[in-house]
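ok trying this again, last paste got cut off
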Amino acid sequence: MDFTLIFLEVFLVSLTYVMPILVFLVLWITAIGTWIGRQENWTFSDSIYYAFITATTVGYGDFHPSKKQSKYAAILVALIGVLLTGIIVAIGINAVETALLETREKNP
């Protein structure tokens, strides 16, 4: 139980520190996704769906850009998504490490 509480505390506090960066990246993904959608004549919801499926590198393949400039923008969305994911994973790893160290110090 100590591990979980320490992990959550460290993870959530760390998230609050980088929240402006995360929001900035999500806004860029959204903006670029809507731009791609306009280029490809997709609906707004399809554009957002495409942007976040691409950003998370899931890529179902049900939507794909056909125009050259949209394809380049899709690469940018994917790179921003990898950066966003990397930040969140790094925070999680740091929280696990901190929780393990503090738990071991309390229970040698």
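PB: full thing came through this time. The mean pLDDT is 95.
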